[in-house]
Amino acid sequence: MFITYTAHSVQFQYGAKGWQYDFNEIAKLGILRKRKSHIIENIISAIGCALVYYYLFFTDWDYAYAVVPLLLCFAVLLYFLFLRRSEFAYYIMVQDTNQKQTRIRIKAGDRHIIRRELEHYENIDFKRTL
C-alpha cells in the first residue's frame, strides 16, 4: 500500500521514502507526467551517422577495417535509440498548505496502482469534508 490512513494523518510510503501529513495540511495531491529529453542520444547518433557516411563515401577502401566497427557501433546506437521503454517520467506531488512541495519519482508500472489509491484518498477526503 502506498497510502496508510491513521486517525488524523495520512502516511505515504514509496520505496525507502516515506512522509506524513495531517488531513488538513494537504492542498494538492496528484501524479505529474514529465516528458524525458533525449538530447544526448540524438547527438551521439548524429555524430555516429556522420562518421559512417564519411568513411563510406569519402575514403578509399583501404580503410575498410574502420568501416565495419563503425557500422556495428551505429547499429548498436540505433538499437538503443529505438529501445526507449518510456517517453515520460512520473512523479507523485504532494503540496501542503504552506506551499511546500514533495515530489518523488515513481516507476511507470506503479502509476496505475498509485492513481487508484489517490482516487480512494480523494473519496475519503470528500466524505470527511461533508
Describe the structure.
The protein is rod-shaped. It has helices at residues 39-57, 64-81, 111-129; strands spanning 3-5, 9-14, 17-22, 26-35, 88-96, 101-106. A hairpin with a 2-residue loop joins β2 (9-14) and β3 (17-22). By secondary structure, the protein is of the alpha+beta class. Helices cover 43% and strands 31% of the residues. The strands form two sheets. Strands 1-2-3 form a three-stranded antiparallel β-sheet, with helices on one face. A three-stranded antiparallel β-sheet has the order 4-5-6, with helices on one face. The chain folds into two domains: 3-36 and 86-129, no CATH class; 39-81, no CATH class.
Q: Compute the separation of the termini in Å.
A: 26 Å
Measured by DSSP, the beta-strand proportion falls in: 25-35%
What is the domain total for the residues? Answer: 2
| Mean pLDDT over the full residue set | 80
Main β-sheet, spatial strand arrangement: 1-2-3
- Residue stretches low in confidence (pLDDT < 50, at least 5 long) are none
Structural class: alpha+beta
User: What's the overall geometry?
Assistant: rod-shaped
Main β sheet profile = 3 strands, antiparallel
Portion of residues within helices? 40-55%
Q: What is Rg?
A: 24 Å
Give the number of DSSP strands: 6
The DSSP helix count reads 3
Order of helices and strands: EEEEHHEEH
Q: What are the defining features of this structure?
A:
three-stranded antiparallel β-sheet; 2 domains; about 30% strand; rod-shaped; alpha+beta; about 130 residues; 6 strands
